Amino acid sequence: MTNDRHIIIYENGEKEHLQCLEPPLEYSPAIDERQREHNKHNRRVKEELSYKGLL
C-alpha cells in the first residue's frame, strides 16, 4: 500500500499537488503538540475532501 495523494491534473497535463491525509502517528499515551497538529491537519483535509465528495 502506498501513501495517499490528492492531485489536480489539468488538461495540459500540469499537476497540482494538494494536501492529503497524513498517516497515523505511533501511539503515545500523552497527546503532545505534534499529535494535536497532526489531528488538526487531518480534520481540515477530511473536511475539504468531504466537501468535494471524495470521502
Order of helix and strand elements from N to C terminus: EEH
The major pleated sheet works out as: 2 strands, antiparallel
Please give the share of residues in helix. 25-40%
Residue fraction in strands? 5-15%
How many β strands by DSSP? 2
What are the low-pLDDT stretches, counting only 5+ consecutive residues below 50? none
End-to-end gap: 19 Å
Q: How does this structure look, described?
A:
The protein is of the alpha+beta class and 55 residues long. The protein is built from one helix and two strands. The protein has a two-stranded antiparallel sheet. It has one helix at residues 33-51, and strands at 7-9, 15-17. The mean pLDDT is 84. It starts with 6 loop residues before the first strand and ends with a helix.
In short:
The chain has 55 residues and is of the alpha+beta class. It contains one helix and two strands; from the N terminus they run ββα. The longest helix is centred in the C-terminal third of the chain and has 19 residues, at 33-51.
List the helices and strands and how they pair.
Layout: E1 7-9, E2 15-17, H1 33-51
Antiparallel strand pairs: 1-2
Pick out its properties.
1 helix, two-stranded antiparallel sheet, 55 residues, 35% helix, 2 strands, 11% strand, alpha+beta
